[in-house]
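Meet our chain:
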Amino acid sequence: MKQLVVISGKGGTGKTSVTAALAGLGPEKVLADCDVDAADLHLILHPEIRQRRPFVSGEQPTLAPELCTACGLCREHCRFEAITEDFVILPEHCEGCGVCEYVCPAEAVTMHPRTCGEQYRSDTRFGPMIHAALGIGEENSGKLVTSVRQEAKEVAEELGRRLVLVDGSPGVGCPVIASLTDADLAVLVAEPTISAVHDLKRVHELTRHFKMPSALIINKSGINQEQEQHLLDYCREQSIPVLGSLPYDETFTKAQIAGQSVLEFDPEGLGKNMHEIWDRLEPLLNH
């Protein structure tokens, strides 16, 4: 079984659109949407949820008003200003450190597990999909990504699928590192803009640090020839295979509105581009 992760140095490069197109190519697979902070692969694949379970991480406090003596020690020691003057705990400010429970002389505060989001196992027209939604303002997205990746791997082994295709998180932070763990190949998606070229270099440094083979897809080709040449020069210097380029085209937006991948929406245009990209990608993945 192989694990292929699609990532980008920044948001908005078309990473999810590329992932959705790749979902319709190659062997039977299990899909995983690891962009849990802003998941949107479901907008194209329309998953039918079969199982759901809460994602629990960290703790949060509960204050019992009937026990509280209003001594103020919890407010005095809370570094995050998560307790109001009338001793109401603000969940959006609380970091779950537990100092309020520790200092309360009346034992009015108790800590309990914190539900931060939900994780799903769904069916799509391209195969099973594991995805999740992190709650508004919640943290520990790296831990949730790890949980999604682990379940996707288990489902692939259970069903005998040869490939796990992961829509990774943008950037270079903890969720991206969790997206890359145990993967066989990282596909980097970049657009020819100054910020995207800069961030591509950062994410490539990350994959290189973890000794992760990578390859590049240039999206929105043609909008800036100078920056596109910078991308090609960097890939040549770093020995990064270039799988192909996708032109800047309104078809991507039209496909999204129709709830389809560009492979389905434009099979004779961008669909052919994606087939050519897969033909170059598959040998790298198998190698």
Remarks:
- The chain has two domains: 2-55+117-286, 65-107.
- The longest helix spans residues 141-159.
